[in-house]
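Problem: given the chain below (324 residues), write out its structure.
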Amino acid sequence: MNDAPAPSPGARRPGGTALTALGLGPAPLSPADASPHSFPDGGSWRTEVPSVESPEALGVVLEESARLDVPVHRISQGSGVWMLTDAEITEMVQGCAERDVELCLFTGPRGTWDTGASVRTDSGGAGLRSRGHDALAGCVEDALRATGLGVRCLLVADEGVLWTLHRLRAQGVLPADTTFKVSALIGPVNPASFAVFEQLGADSINIPSDLTLAHLTEIRRVSGAPMDLYIEAPDDLGGYVRMYEVAELIRRGAPLYLKFGLSRSPGIYPYGRHLRETALSTARERVRRGRLALDLLARHGADGGMAALGSRLPGPLHRFGISS
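Solution.
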């Protein structure tokens, strides 16, 4: 990958000037903390609007992003491929293609949409992973159906599903330009696990929004795979809001997808028309949250380094060998 662009010489820290005048200035940034990685075009960050569950919600996001001038690289859906008709998937693919935005759909079944009760226990059981051969087969079926309709990015929440889809991609069963995105539901929390997901075939990897800045630096010392990070996380993922850290998250975590989530909002998975008004209003507000984050970056002089709109591939990554 190319070297990540240097921070703007005019960039400032939040409240830095006023606090320095009081003798409370921030500690100097360490160059050793900066990520040496970037997207293939040298950009350090892209944007993503998650939880866009229908063609109508997609239309709202595209309309609002144009109105508020919010650049969007990727739009993702959380309910799953099987919750959309062929016509709906085709409409979403076409809508994203017209704006040169990547569309990412979730594969399933997974723990919360299954008969197993362990995921609902205090311990969480096997979590969101796919239970048994049939659930794995369902994920493969979703991947084949979605890519056949033009989708080129798939969300996964199971290591075995990821490895299986990566092997199918390597064999040409799935299109070679298909990318796999690891869900925040199983996001890795240390450098070794992050590197394993990359080796299993991940092209971008959600990390939990409660990882510290130091954790991002530790991960970047072993892997250059793109990170996905909720700048504002949904309540079921902690509800964390890290807007004032965006510039430093980019500096430490590049290449990084800034995900504009929404706390204090009802869950909408699995989506249906009974949740229509909630889905549309939250989709609109996610774009507005994106505008707030980008405005903050601009005020701090740290809004440079965005990857080109329309770019979607991760660049060279490390993989486990696939035996014939």
